[in-house]
Amino acid sequence: MSQASFPSDAFPAFPAVTLEAPDGWEPRAFAGTVLALIDDRGPDAFSPNVVVGVTRTVAGHTLDEASAAVEEYVSRLPEVAPVDSARVDLGDRAWAVSEFAYTTDSVGTVVQVVAVTVVDHGPVTDVVRVTGTATPADYETSLPAIRQIVADARVG
Fold first, then answer.
1. SS3 for the chain, per residue?
2. What pLDDT is recorded for position 94?
3. pLDDT by residue (tens digit) across 80-92?
4. Mean pLDDT of 2-11
5. Which terminus of the chain faces fewer neighbouring Cβ atoms within 10 Å, N or C?
6. What is the rounded CA–CA span in Å between residue 109 and residue 98?
7. pLDDT in tens, 30-83
8. CB 133 within 8 A of CB 98
């Protein structure tokens, strides 16, 4: 009988991800994420946040493919208004970054920054997705903080 285990050479561990929390932001666990920061505004208000997800894909999955998946996600959002998208080098890694606004049923309009990068692990590739969300009311305060969190994200 053979055995398989995680992590191992055949099933590598997910990449480490580090976010720098601005003053007032705190780490918080959310289902479906590996890491999150929140500027907690209490139960009656939307709290700006940045969440990190990691998706395992086939070996050789490219940044172009990861970026195309984000663009597909954005295209399906209700009342979406793209702001900007670009390829950037953050630290020692290439990222695809998109910024856009759209309407949600629960909060109304939100602004999101989504950044993706890929990490090759031999038999697999991991897509790291950092998503920051704020409301237009927080545009001048939280959105710059979110952009800085994304720009300072470290993946390794």
1. CCCCCCCCCCCCCCCCEECCCCCCCEECCCCCCCEEEECCCCCCCCCCEEEEEEEEEECCCCHHHHHHHHHHHHHCCCCCEEEEEEEEEECCEEEEEEEEEEEECCCEEEEEEEEEEEEECCCEEEEEEEEEEECHHHCCCHHHHHHHHHHHCEEC
2. 97
3. 999 999 999 998 8
4. 92
5. N
6. 17
7. 999 999 999 999 999 999 999 999 999 999 999 999 999 999 999 999 999 999
8. no
